[in-house]
Design brief:
Elements: H1 7-43, H2 47-71, H3 74-84, H4 89-111, H5 113-119, H6 127-137, H7 141-156, H8 161-183, H9 193-217, H10 235-264, H11 268-284, H12 286-304, H13 308-342, H14 348-380, H15 385-409, H16 414-440
Helix pairs in contact: 1-8, 1-11, 1-12, 1-13, 2-4, 2-6, 2-7, 2-10, 2-11, 3-7, 3-12, 4-7, 5-6, 6-9, 7-9, 8-9, 10-11, 10-15, 10-16, 11-14, 12-13, 12-14, 13-14, 14-16, 15-16
Length: 446
Amino acid sequence: MFEFFPMESWVDECRKTLRLAGPLVGAQGAIMSMAVVDNLVVGRLGPGPLAAMAMALTLYYFCYIIIIGILTTVGPLVSTAVSRGEAVGPTVRRAWLLSLTLSVGMIAACRQGHVLLPLLGQDPKLVPRADEFLRSASWGVPAATGYLALRQFTEGTGDTRASVVISGLAACINPFLDLGLILGRFGLPRLEMSGAGLALSTANWIAFLCLVGYLACNRRYRAWPFWRGSGGTSMLGLLKLGLPMGGSLLSEMSFFAVMTLLMGTLGTVQLASHQIAMNVCSLFFTLPLGLSFAAALRLGEAAGRHDANAVRRAGRTSIAMVLVTQCASCACFLLFAERIVSCYTEAVPVVALAARLLRMGALFQVFDGLQVVGMGMLRGLLDTRVPFLNAIFSYWLVGVPCGVWLAFSRHWGPIGLWTGLITGLLVAACLHQWRFHRLSRGPAFG
């Protein structure tokens, strides 16, 4: 059942994975740091605006996650094609056009936040502020989706430095945008929630335009012109692969979204505490998320060569590396929960509850890391349908019922909802890892 690879091969695989993952982790860290800064600045307006921010971002990312799922299959497709010497430009062109088409639907949803949020049972007093954010943020949606498609192109060719440099630039500009547009610093008008959305839109356009300029000026990409040529994966093929992956991510995102909405029914303090704890977990989540992207690329390359040993070695190396990062996150949460939470707010009830949730996040992080790297490995093998079914079962047939029962029937409140989150992630992690084990031993890689 178990097979052992020479130590040299493990070291080589770790080195190659880290070479890809380092910039990807840096890029994700820069992106998540922007969300942290957004919440830190909005938190200075009070618990009400912070809760409205949680509500607005839930709807925003509920839409965005579908597009992410569809387009993240582009990276493995590109890496597989490159390893085989096939054309990649037409695939990227179709992915970019698809991203623009999908952004139209997301803009429409953001523009209807004042209609959608009350239907989800949210506090009517918070809806106007959330709607202000969504309307301003909608202006940056085409840039965000276009950047995602082009970023998959560069990363699929093994070029991950562009992502971290451009994301880092946007992250450096973001605090000045937030302070200026939300709080009225630097001579700019104090727009509060509208300013938060406008800052997000501006950062998205900066990142997109920088990446377009990079592709236009870099001679390396002249070998893969995406504005002409034929062949590659069709738009229908992208949808066939991407829709189940989008469904998987949507299932996971909606799982977190529903838990956030349920938390909103418990009160403003509970929702604000949940938002802080989730924001911190999301920041630390950049480590396993970056590793999952690297795992998808490494497995896509190995699968393109039909190298069974390389597939299994890359997968197991990714799992081991994620366990190391998540153990470090656990220690940080357990030791410094109050200090971390106090950076967001000084409201004593919020700090106390958020610190409790963050300590639960120590266990949350381990299972979340294992499930996301499992999803990345399966995406690298272009296996998207079964992970979609696994996600529905884990989150909606196990996690949500467990959380609702503990929170409302057993009166555990926020602790019950977070127990449901942890349970759903545990089941998803087990199913994704088992699926990889079966595939890597199957006919294609046996």
